[in-house]
Design a protein that fits this description.
Elements lengths: L6 H8 L6 E6 L3 E3 L16 E5 L14 H4 L13 E5 L1 E4 L5 E3 L14 E6 L16 E5 L13 E5 L30 E6 L3 E2 L13 E2 L18 E2 L2 E8 L18 E3 L10 E5 L6 H7 L15 H6 L27
Antiparallel strand pairs: 1-7, 2-3, 3-4, 4-16, 5-6, 5-15, 7-14, 8-16, 9-10, 10-14, 11-12, 11-13
Bound molecules: 2-acetamido-2-deoxy-beta-D-glucopyranose (2 copies).
Protein name: DUF1996 domain-containing protein
InterPro entries: DUF1996
Keywords: Signal
Length: 344
């Protein structure tokens, strides 16, 4: 079974009529302070994350011994051959009295998952180009939690303030129009749509690098979407992975609860009050050649006959117990962020 095109997918198509992209929902797998990419083995890791995908997600995921499709017994993604893990930091609201509460997530328009994210794999505008799926063991990171400079936010990582839950009027392609590189400054009646887009060129051999970034690159000229060519150092076109994360900020729209000095009420879980530390993590985990099949058959939007789809209920049922046992601040005000990162 695959979904009929949804309103949101049609909206997505309108920004990308010349593009080929597939899109699917993944429910929340867990919210936990572990990070097998940047802090393997640390329980807890320095900051809180929200994670989707295969349930082999763990504090240590040694690529030499762990094969996510083998080690997982379920995935929170609707395409059931996808045991990859996708994660970002969480956002917290800080009330005038200094306490914090986690900003919850909601499913994107047209998707019936629970929280989580919408994942895109974009072929880009290059009808005859071969797009090479990631090999087992591939990992990458985009953005930098320590960044506080708007000019150093990678392209296509941004925030959109949605005026209503219908996301009308449609704000155009990601990171255009009034989208911002930092946290939106005003209240948003429809929450935020946060976009995290990864580079689309690979050196063709390295599964991961110490900074988790140097093995991938952006096109040398133009953009992936415009068919820009990959640089000679990173000649292999890979799918452009993009996350859309919908934050339900509506419970925090009462400005009487915002800090009296006009400072930001929003913090990434790593203590960043600017938003410029936006980043995302990716650990590849598709079974067999499933992702290559999806790329080769040009799966479009929510329809991918080449892939197996499980029910939304099955995706929602795939969850993982929290490992770093602590209050995550989802229904209780916390006196400090988990891990107590400095608030700068
Ligand atoms: C997660 O790691 C722990 C040890 O740190 C191990 O006991 C457990 O089996 C792992 N779980 C999975 C699903 O790999
Ligand atoms: C802090 O502020 C929040 C939001 O206004 C409120 O719900 C909470 O009860 C307050 N906590 C304390 C200890 O005053």
């Amino acid at each position: 079974m695959w979904l009929k095109p949804t309103l949101a997918a049609l909206a997505a198509a309108s920004f990308s009529s010349a593009q080929e992209l597939m899109r699917f929902g993944c429910s929340q797998l867990t919210i936990d302070r572990i990070d097998p990419l940047v802090n393997p083995g640390s329980v807890p890791s320095p900051h809180m994350h929200q994670i989707i995908g295969g349930n082999s997600f763990n504090a240590s995921m040694d690529p030499n011994s762990l094969d996510p499709p083998t080690a997982s017994s379920c995935t929170s993604c609707t395409y059931s051959e996808d045991f990859s893990n996708y994660w970002t930091a969480n956002v917290y609201f800080r009330a005038r009295n200094g306490t914090f509460k986690m900003v919850p997530l909601f499913a994107n328009l047209g998707l019936n998952v629970k929280g989580g994210m919408t994942v895109y794999y974009i072929r880009g505008y290059q009808p005859n180009a071969r797009v090479t799926a990631f090999p087992p063991g591939f990992r990458m990171l985009v953005g930098d939690p320590n960044n506080r400079d708007p000019n150093r936010v990678p392209r296509q990582l941004c925030f959109r303030c949605e005026h209503n839950m219908q996301q009308v009027p449609f704000g155009g392609a990601p990171c255009t129009g009034s989208d911002t590189k930092g946290f939106p400054k005003d209240t948003c009646g429809g929450g935020w749509r946060v976009t995290v887009t990864f580079p689309s060129c690979w050196d063709g051999k390295t599964l991961d690098t110490p900074d988790h970034k140097s093995h991938v690159a952006y096109p040398a000229t133009g953009t992936f979407e415009s068919g820009g060519a990959c640089p000679s150092s990173h000649p292999v076109k890979i799918p452009q992975v993009m996350y859309e994360i919908m934050y339900d900020t509506r419970a925090f729209n009462n400005k009487a609860e915002w800090p009296a000095d006009g400072s930001s009420p929003w913090y990434w879980s790593h203590g960043d009050p600017t938003g410029y530390g936006i980043h995302g993590d990716y650990v590849f985990g598709w079974q067999g050649d499933a992702l290559q099949r999806a790329m080769d058959t040009k799966c479009a939007l929510d329809r991918c006959p080449a892939l197996k789809r499980q029910t939304d209920a099955e995706a929602i049922a795939c969850t993982k117990r929290q490992i770093a046992n602590e209050d995550i601040g989802d229904n209780k005000w916390l006196t400090e962020l988990p891990g107590a990162p400095p608030l700068v």
